[in-house]
Structure formats: C-alpha cells, structure tokens
Design brief:
Layout lengths: L2 H18 L3 H11 L5 H9 L6 H13 L22 E5 L2 E8 L2 E6 L2 E5 L8 E5 L11 H25 L2 H4 L7 E2 L6 E2 L1 E4 L5 E3 H6 L14 E2 L24 E5 L9 H15 L3 H9 L1 E5 L3 E7 L10 H9 L3 E7 L17 H15 L5
Parallel strand pairs: 5-11, 13-14
Antiparallel strand pairs: 1-2, 2-3, 3-4, 4-5, 6-7, 8-9, 8-10, 12-13
Helix pairs in contact: 1-2, 1-4, 1-5, 2-3, 8-9, 8-10
Length: about 375
C-alpha cells in the first residue's frame, strides 16, 4: 500500500473518531472491520504482506465514515475538524405512510399526517410523540411496530446531527482525557468536575462529554453547565451513571394543533372589559370599567358589578352587551359600593380628558391633602 493510501485511511479513522466520539484506535479498528479485517493490526499485517486495497475499498471506507456523519472530502490536512453544513430535510415512506424528517436546534423532527415525533438533542432524553386528536383513531404511530421503525430512522438522523457537533467541537469536548478532564464546547475552560446550575448536580467530565454537555440528571442545555457550583456551600450531589445508558421510552401526547380560542372566564372578562372602556365617556366611567368585577357563571351568564361612585346606575353598557351577545352569553348587572381609588370621585365625571382630570386631582390633594411620590 502506498504511503498516500495509508495516510488516507488514518485520516478517515481520525474523522470517524471525531464524528462518533470514540478513541482513534477504535475508529481504525472499525474501518478495518468494514474492509473485511478483524482489526487494524490485521490490516497493517496484510499491508506488510503486500496486500493492496482497490479504489473500491477506499470508496467503501469513505462511505462508511460519511454514513457516521464525518466529512470525507478534501485532502488529509489539519482542517479535518471543520464541519459546518446543515442536513437537508428529507422525505420518505414507511409502511405506506409518507413522512418528512429534518432537524431544528439539535432536535430531530419527523412529521406525518396528524402526528409528529421529536428526538431531543440530549442523548438520554425521552422522544416525544404528538398525535393530532382528530387523527387519534387512525394514526399509524399507534402501531408499536411502525413507531419502533420510525424511532430507528429518527435516531439515525440524530446520530448524524450529533456527529456534526462532535466534528465542530474541540476533540476534548466529546471525549474526556485519562484524568477525566473535558473541555466545555462554549469556551468555559477545562475541568474534571462540572456543575449544573439548573438542578445543582455534579457531573464528571466524562459524563458531560458523553451526554453532549446536557445535564444527565435534568437534561438542561450546555449553557447551564459551569466549572464552578452555583452555591459553593451547597455544590449538589454527583450524578450516577445509569446501568444502561439509553433513551427513555417515548412520551405520547394527544394535542390540538389548531389555534384555539378558550372562552373561559379570563378571556370573556378581557373582551367585556374592553367593551366597557369603549362605552365609557368620562374618566370616572373609564375607571369604573377598569375596576368593575366581571364573572362568568356556568359559562352562560356574564355578571358585571360596577362601583356606584364611578359608573352611572342608569347607563347601559351597550358595547359590552353586544360583545356578550356575540359570545352567546346573557348579562346581569349590579351596582355596589367599592373603595374608590381617589378622593373627590365627582371630579372624574367633569371631564373625559385624563390629563385634565389628573391636574384637578393634584390641585385638590395639594390644597386639602398630601401627595407622596
């Protein structure tokens, strides 16, 4: 084998190691196995025995490394860590059902008619399946076999997304050294112990690197991982590795994806109060609209209680009545004695101009009371 070919395989091994976060010797062994050898030493022994790879062998090795998400084009240079392309959205068909797969901010999203599957960027977080309630009975994700195959497709895409991150990040960010020291991918230094500022957990460098800097305890993002604890006196408890490091089971959610108007008490009160402000012609009446108590009774009746000093007893809130009618609701009104917000409530009935009212209010308090700022 020529020196060029040997260097080519070694560079491919290095790139495979970066993308999959395995040790370099493990990556070389994987390439050797792909080419039909038991391990890398067997390949080099064959080279000494005058074995020569074909161009098809090199193409096979490149395809193997590329499938892992690594960059394979270009010469063997120091730039093999550069990896900055976006994976395009793809379409496919599974068990006769169309789907589209893409990624957003590190998460992988697969969408079909009436359902979505999201694989979080954090390697151990549970996938989330959302089913449109209109398609609940007919959705293919109800079939465990379909869902299992879909998860395999999504997980393969997620592996490619993480491979992009691994090649773009420093090598020490995805594989701790022999002392357990790992480097934060966002430039927060090197350390063997890291701290989650979201749940106060202690994380080893190896745990942080293996979990792509998401907290293995709460799943928070790398921005919340720091080399010092949030509170030095209470640094938190160490996170223990699970016996089997694998994703949690999918979380199934039934959702209504359409824009929904909930005509609950808060919404109805907001709309009716807005109409009351439209009905108000003086400052007092506007204050009365703002301070009115509005309740929804049995989702059938709007009950409005006005302040007797702010809202005239004989004034009909015509706009509010019209709004209630649009909502299919009846209206009941009553007048009650509230604690008025300001002294001299008659002042608010003399003008519709709020600035003029404030001027009169300030003058009255300066002459007969106290103003605190």
């Amino acid at each position: 084998m020529s020196d060029y070919h040997m260097k080519k395989l070694k560079v491919l091994g290095k790139r495979y190691a970066r993308a999959t976060t395995v040790a370099h010797n493990e990556a070389l062994n994987a390439i050797a196995v792909e080419l039909g050898f038991a391990h890398w030493k067997a390949l080099t022994d064959a080279v000494k025995a005058k074995w020569q790879p074909t161009e098809d062998d090199l193409k096979q090795a490149e395809a193997f490394v590329c499938d892992a998400g690594a960059k394979t084009n270009g010469d063997a240079t120091n730039n093999d860590a550069l990896f900055s392309f976006e994976l395009a959205c793809e379409e496919g068909e599974l068990c006769g059902h169309w789907y589209q797969i893409g990624d957003s901010l590190g998460d992988v999203v697969v969408s079909g008619k009436g359902w979505d599957l999201r694989i979080p960027e954090a390697p151990l977080e549970a996938p989330i399946v959302e089913i449109d309630e209109r398609y609940l009975e007919t959705s293919p994700v109800n079939d465990p076999n379909f869902l299992a195959q879909l998860l395999e497709i999504a997980q393969a895409r997620s592996n490619r997304v993480r491979a992009q991150m691994a090649v773009d990040w420093p090598r020490r960010s995805t594989k701790a050294d022999l002392d357990g020291v790992a480097r934060h991918p966002l430039g927060r230094g090197d350390a063997a112990t890291w701290f989650c500022h979201s749940c106060d957990a202690q994380i080893t460098g190896a745990q942080a690197a293996e979990n792509y800097w998401h907290c293995p305890n709460c799943g928070t993002h790398p921005l919340n991982i720091h080399p010092v604890p949030f509170d030095d006196q209470f640094p938190g408890e160490p996170v223990h590795n699970p016996d089997v490091a694998q994703r949690q089971k999918p979380e199934i959610r039934i959702v209504e994806p359409r824009l929904t108007l909930c005509l609950d008490e808060e919404t109805v009160s907001t709309l009716v109060r807005c109409a009351l402000l439209e009905d108000a012609t003086t400052v007092n009446e506007r204050l009365g609209a703002i301070r009115a108590q509005i309740s929804l009774i049995d989702r059938e009746v709007v009950w409005i209680t006005f302040d007797e000093l702010l809202w005239p007893e004989d004034k009909e809130p015509t706009s509010a009545l019209a709004v209630a009618a649009k909502l299919g609701l009846e209206v009941e009104q009553e007048i009650s004695a509230f604690s008025e917000p300001f002294a001299w409530p008659d002042l608010g009935g003399m003008t519709a101009n709020t600035a003029k009212y404030v001027e009169m209010l300030l003058n009255a308090y300066e002459e007969h009371g106290v103003i605190k700022r």
